[in-house]
Structure formats: C-alpha cells, structure tokens
TrEMBL record:
Family of the protein in this entry: Belongs to the binding-protein-dependent transport system permease family.
GO BP term, pick one: transmembrane transport
Keyword flag Transmembrane helix: yes
GO cellular component: plasma membrane
InterPro entries: MetI-like, MetI-like_sf
Organism: Micrococcus flavus
UniProt keyword list: Cell inner membrane, Cell membrane, Membrane, Transmembrane, Transmembrane helix, Transport
Record protein name field: Thiamine transport system permease protein
Organism classification: Bacteria, Bacillati, Actinomycetota, Actinomycetes, Micrococcales
Domain ABC transmembrane type-1 stretches: 84-279, 362-560
Database matches in CDD domains: TM_PBP2
Length: 573
C-alpha cells in the first residue's frame, strides 16, 4: 500500500472559480463514480450494519424490524470483551513501539547526512508497501521452530503479532514525522541551547511541541492499521482470543453466524472511525505546519548516538524478517535448492483435494488485479478531476468538500468489513455476479479507489491554473483545455494511480478472503491456506510464494514512486 497516497491531502489549493456551466458539467461527470461507491461500498457496509441490529426469522434472514438482542447477547459474553481488549491492547502496543522507534529514525533519516542514508530510508519505508500476508509469512520464517529466532518461543504469540505490526507501521511514523521535521527551522532549538537548555530539554520544550500534530496524526494512523491488521493476525495464528477482525472471519467462515459477525463488525467499525476522526483532525494541523520550507541536513555527531542506535535497530527489525523469508524459501527437507520454487508450478499443496498451483493462483491474482485496476481508474479519474476543479457556486463547493471527506471512508473501513458486506448483500442479491467472480475485482477496486484518487489529486493540483486561463482566452473549450493542459499531467498521474491500484489489488487479502471461489483463489488467499495445512512442502511453498509476491509488489510500488513528480509528492506527509 502506498504510504504517500494514504497521507497526501486530497483538497487542492484555491484557484479562480470556473463558470457555472463548466461546474455543472464536472458535477455531472461525478455521478457514475459516486453511484459505484454507493452500490459497492455504502450498500454492502450498510447491509452488514443492519445485520447486527435487525431481527431475524427462523431461517436467519433479517425481518426488517429493529432488534438489539444480538448486541445484548454478544456484549454480554466475557469472550467479546477479551477480544475487544486484546484488539485495543495489541494496537496500542504496536502504536507505542512504532512511535518509539520511528521518532528517532525520522530525526536521523530526515535531519542528518551520512553515507547510505538514501538506501536506509528506502529500507525503512519498504515494509509498508508489502502485502500483509507477506509480512505474516516473513515473521513466521523468522520466529518459527528452525528459524533464526525460533529459540525465543515467540511463534504464534501476541508478541509476534505486535512485532509484525511495528515492522509494518514504523514507516508511517518515519515518513509522516520526518516530513515535518525536515521542514522545521532549527534556529528555535538552537536559541534554546544558547540560553542554557540541554539537548534533551530543548527537544522536549521546543521541537517536540512543533512535531506534535504530525506525531499525533501518525500515531492515529498506526493505531488504525494495527486495529485492522487482519492479514498479519490470520497468518501468524490468531494468538489468544484473536482480534475483532479475525473473529468476524471466524464467525462468518467457520460458524456461519452472520448476525454475531455483524455485531463484531460494528464494534470494529467504531474503533476505525474513532482513529480516522483523530487522524483527520491532526493531519490538517500537520499540513499547515509543513509549509515551513526545508531545513539543511547536518552530519551525524556523537550526541546523535542514541537516535542512531534506534535507527539501526529499526533497520534490523525491517531486514531480519525479509532476509529470513528469502533464505528459508530456498530450504526444503531435501536441503538447500529451488525445490520450493519448483513446487509452485507443479503442486497445489499436500492435503488439498485438487486445487490450483501457486503459479496458477498468481496468474489469477494478476488477472483480478488488472480488472480491479481498470475499474479503479474508471472511478478514480473522474473523481480526481472533480476534486481539483474550482467552482463558483457555494453549493457545488459544499458537494466537493463532502465528496472529499466521504472518500476517506473506504480508506478507513476495514477490507474485512467490506468483504463481509459483499457477502450479506451482493452475493445474496446478485448471485450471478458472485458466480462470475466479478465481486473480487470490484471489492479490490473499492479498497484501491481512495488510494488512486490521492495519487491523482496532487499531480492534477500541480497544474498552473494560469495555463488553463490562457487556453480558454485563446478560445479552447473545456474538453480541449483538459486534453492539452491537464492531459500530460493526467497521463503521468494515471500511470501512477494504475500502478498503485495494481499493487494493492495484487496483495489484497481481507476482502478477497471472503469472496474468492475455492477453485479460483488469489495468491495471498492460497498462501494463507498453505500455512494452515501441515507438511513441509506446504510451508516451503508458502515461503516461496510469499517471496515472489513480495518482489512483485515492492517492484511495482517502487516503480510507482519514481513516476511521482516531486512537486506532487512533497506536499504529502
């Protein structure tokens, strides 16, 4: 998942408003994308929520009458509160550790110059673009018996899940806090030092309050990602009582208790919305603070020993699981070699009655991701254009602001919730669509649209409005202005958004795990199945398949970052 796309603000700078006719045309262009989100996001999520508060008949179908007995029953269980407490506790621990490691790493990587700084920044930021199932498999390779740290006994424990959360999310803190730290004027802290303050006191009284908005925003985002880390929890073995998201999956896929799953979905949604609201408030303050400029880099000194050590620890935390994943993927019961990779093309895994091979699942993933990318672009391009158009009408600007805010919801709502919503709405009301396999790329597109829009908006916002005005003065109509002025920027932005959408869809696991047919699994779903089956060959294939998926996802995402214009990416946190 692209971190810059997640944190780049979608609201464009103020520009001269367009004419009323042009504004009406742009609003009309947004009808189809908005209808897509209403049908494939709002309706499934609402259907899921209704399952938790509606009465049911003897067949288990909603009756249409309000009935909160399911809430009373689920909330009356001690297990529910243990699951909620474990979810919040693991998310809080993952957030605290991510901030503790990310804050000094942000300082070293954004305020100090040293050999290898660019490479180390890339290493620290890589985990966030990896599919969650890959992160889970990497930590299994590191901590499982026979792994480099198997002696710790942390495999399939709560501590292992928290470590994986930190691995996955420390880059959020480094990127978001580091961007603000790089823009701070160092003379204020230097003035405090001149007046006799120690380095620690100058940091606590001057620098830390300035970093407050970005730090709070990063912590809110990390908490959100930790609380909805379904792929990590699922692949690492659902320690203890599990989490809200893993319980939704268990109640749906194992017990077929959709009503109980809906109640857990509502609880999970409440946690997510609270984190999204906090993140939105702090992000606005951080964006205003980022307009400060860029502070010069200074070389590392002896006084930087503590943050440098913390940064080295962060790099080790990132490299160790990935190295363990790659190295152990070449080891099988027959010794070192390519056996695990050879099995990817010849075996569906032992213990499976038929099924597809991992390479066939990868082919299915690629086809599904390509379909999802097409759908994502058809929806996100009109939305991005609509969000970057100036409007003279106050009502039109209100619609634009409302749409901008609404696009945060698919980003904040868990993919597990989206997948469950598809199960209780579209799969029931449109069985032909479900049988065709089209629900999988549609669900992946719902997850990818907010990311694609936030990749496109900064690129389109970089267009100098005077170029459009000059084109209109010379007699060009709206279509020609769009083609000749916005067109070159839009083409590059479309390539960026398409890459993001493809990589996100390729590794999507939460919604896909609910919707993928047994005979058409994607590679992340098949990896999870292989981990759930005993046998050395199954485990070896899971390692090899996760390595292939990691290389493909990281390669696509790094290529996307090279497409990003500097002026488009600098504004993001």
């Amino acid at each position: 998942m692209p971190l810059a796309a997640l944190t780049t603000p979608a609201r464009p700078p103020r520009r001269r408003p367009a004419g009323t006719g042009a504004g009406a045309g742009w609003l009309a262009a947004g009808v189809v994308p908005v209808a897509f989100l209403l049908v494939f996001f709002a309706w499934p999520v609402a259907a899921m929520l209704w399952r938790g508060v509606a009465g049911v008949d003897v067949a288990g179908d909603p009756t249409g009458a309000l009935d909160l007995s399911a809430f009373a029953e689920v909330l009356g269980r001690e297990r529910t509160w243990r699951i909620l407490g474990q979810t919040l506790g693991m998310a809080a621990a993952g957030t605290a550790a991510s901030v503790a490691l990310g804050l000094p790493a942000a300082f070293v990587l954004h305020r100090r110059a040293f050999p290898g700084r660019t490479l180390l920044r890339a290493v620290v930021l890589v985990p966030f673009v990896l599919p969650t199932v890959v992160v889970g498999v990497a930590f299994r390779a590191l901590l499982a018996p026979g792994g480099p740290f198997g002696w710790t006994g942390l495999d399939q424990t709560t501590a292992a899940v928290v470590l994986a959360m930190v691995f996955f999310n420390v880059s959020v803190v480094v990127r978001q806090v580091g961007a603000l730290w790089a823009a701070l004027d160092p003379r204020q802290a230097e003035a405090a030092r001149t007046l006799g303050a120690s380095p620690t006191r100058a940091f606590l009284t001057v620098t830390l309050p300035q970093l407050g908005p970005a730090l709070a925003g990063a912590a809110a985002l990390v908490f959100l990602f930790c609380a909805s880390a379904f792929g990590i929890v699922q692949t690492l073995g659902r320690p203890g009582y599990g989490t809200l998201e893993s319980e939704i999956w268990v109640q749906t896929a194992v017990y077929l208790d959709l009503r109980t799953a809906a109640v857990f979905s509502i609880l999970q949604l409440a946690v997510v919305l609270a984190a999204v609201a906090l993140s939105g408030v702090t992000a606005a303050r951080a964006r205003r603070a980022l307009r400060l400029g860029t502070a010069p880099l200074r070389p590392l000194t002896r006084t930087d020993a503590l943050p440098a050590a913390a940064t080295a620890l962060t790099g080790a935390l990132v490299l160790a699981p990935l190295a363990a994943l790659v190295i152990r993927s070449f080891r099988s019961p027959e010794g070192w070699g390519l056996r695990n990779y050879t099995l990817l093309a010849t075996s569906p895994g032992t213990g499976f009655a038929g099924g597809v091979t991992p390479l066939e699942a990868l082919e299915q993933s690629a086809r599904t991701a390509l379909d999802a990318t097409v759908v994502t672009l058809l929806v996100s391009v009109p939305l991005a254009l609509l969000l970057t158009r100036p409007f003279r009408s106050r009502a039109a600007r209100a619609v634009q602001r409302a749409l901008d805010g609404a696009l945060l919801l698919p980003l904040g709502v868990s993919a597990v919730t989206v997948g469950f919503g598809f199960v209780v709405s579209l799969r029931v009301q449109a069985p032909e669509l479900a049988a065709s396999g089209a629900l999988v790329p549609i669900a992946q597109a719902v997850v990818a649209v907010p990311l694609a829009v936030r990749a496109l908006v900064p690129v389109l916002a970089a267009v100098d409005p005077r170029l459009r005005e000059a084109a209109r003065t010379l007699g060009a109509g709206p279509a020609r202005v769009l083609a000749t002025v916005d067109g070159p920027f839009l083409l590059r932005g479309v390539g960026l958004a398409a890459g993001f959408a493809f990589a996100v869809s390729l590794g999507e696991f939460g919604a896909t795990s609910f919707l993928a047919a047994a005979d058409r699994p994607t590679l992340p779903v098949l990896i999870a199945r292989l981990l759930g089956r005993p046998g050395a060959d199954n485990y070896g294939m899971a390692l090899a398949a996760a390595t292939v998926l990691a290389v493909l996802s990281a390669g696509v995402m790094l290529a996307c970052e090279r497409l990003r214009p500097r002026e488009a990416g600098s504004g993001g946190i």
